[in-house]
Design a protein that fits this description.
Length: 129
Amino acid sequence: MDHNDRNSDDSGTEAECDFTDLEGSLSTDAMLELLTHPYRRATLQYFIDASDEAATIDEVTTYLVDHESQQSGDQSDRGRLEIAITHIHLPMLSEKGIIEYDARSREIRYRRHEGLEALLGCLRALDST
């Protein structure tokens, strides 16, 4: 099956995964870059599912440890995971304006982004197939 055949067969998926950067603040490439790592995807999912747009690093780390343990069946190294999110993933999300992150208070505030949330939903749907 060539590329064109595949696209014509996926019309239902295409409609479900239609997303637009409604705010115009991030390109599609920037959104895809943010979603390449499972820690960033899980962090965003934490805030999408949460009733509050603010959390502590400890709350997000606990969520990520639980999420990673469910995915792999192994207990995650909490310290390693916290170092990775505080030094790599949260700063990257902050740089793109998706979160506000205060390292001193260890507070994270999510800034909703409809295009990024829609793309994450599409990627999760593809993962479950």
